[in-house]
Design brief:
Layout: E1 18-22, H1 29-39, H2 42-45, E2 49-51, E3 58-60, E4 66-68, H3 86-103, E5 112-117, H4 119-134, E6 141-145, H5 154-161, E7 170-175, H6 183-195, E8 200-205, H7 214-227
Parallel strand pairs: 1-2, 1-5, 5-6, 6-7, 7-8
Antiparallel strand pairs: 3-4
Helix pairs in contact: 3-4, 4-5
């Protein structure tokens, strides 16, 4: 199986903000890119630069141990009460942090947004937490769509140890009718973030199941336009 690390949504243009979009379990960067293109008018899509990384396939216990395109393993079930498989999480965050580091050589970190759908949203939270714990520079934004963090996620201990004073604006959305990754799990993650002082917004999308819809992505892009501050690329700031 071919596992390209990224799929570019369009030609590089470091005067546009970059969205690093992480796909859900079993999908690929190409699949996520095609899905987003179905939901976003081309005129809006072209206002951004996009990167769609693909997870390295690993044995996935919730798929009977079969090798699957997932960002990390899960054992026991989906509920946030099950223990996080942190070793597998960090293999993916290491790869995504390298992508961010690579991008900062040609653009302001404040023009970089990381997020994703389902498991991809969770790995975006994980990556952003590690970035802001280790770097003084702030990313432009973070988003999580139909996702959550486990109760014992390492993210929470990172936030405890490194107070997230430089955390960027965060958009969180969930389908009201999601019966796979329950909206309460996503809201619980949001409330815990806010309690720790993170600037985040939570939105319920009426009628949506475990899915992405045009209305939701339009809200996401509008949020990013309103909240990120993009300055011209000047130098390697790290």
């Amino acid at each position: 199986m071919t596992t390209a690390s990224t799929t570019d949504g369009n030609n590089n243009n470091n005067h546009r903000p970059l969205i690093i979009f992480c796909h859900g379990s079993g999908d690929t960067g190409n699949g996520a890119n095609a899905w987003i293109r179905e939901l976003v008018p081309s005129s809006d899509y072209s206002q951004w630069e996009w990167r769609f990384p693909t997870a390295e396939p690993i044995p996935y216990q919730l798929n009977g141990g079969r090798v699957t395109s997932v960002w990390y393993d899960r054992v026991g079930g989906f509920a946030p009460t099950f223990p996080e498989q942190t070793t597998t999480v960090e293999r993916s965050t290491d790869r995504l942090l390298k992508i961010i580091k690579e991008e900062t050589k040609r653009r302001d970190p404040g023009s970089i947004i990381i997020g994703g759908f389902s498991m991809g949203g969770a790995i975006a939270y994980q990556t952003a937490a590690r970035w802001h714990a280790a770097n003084k520079t702030t990313l432009g934004g973070v988003f999580g769509l139909s996702c959550y963090l486990n109760h014992d996620s390492k993210v929470w201990s990172i936030f405890q140890e490194h107070k997230p004073t430089n955390w960027p604006p965060t958009f969180i959305a969930h389908g009201a009718n999601d019966d796979f990754i329950f909206p309460g799990w996503g809201q619980e993650t949001y409330e815990r973030m806010v309690k720790m002082g993170l600037p985040a917004e939570f939105r319920i999308i009426p009628g949506m199941q475990h899915d992405m819809v045009a209305e939701e992505i339009a809200q996401l892009l509008e949020f990013l336009k309103e909240n990120i501050k993009v300055s011209e690329f000047t130098s390697d700031e790290l």
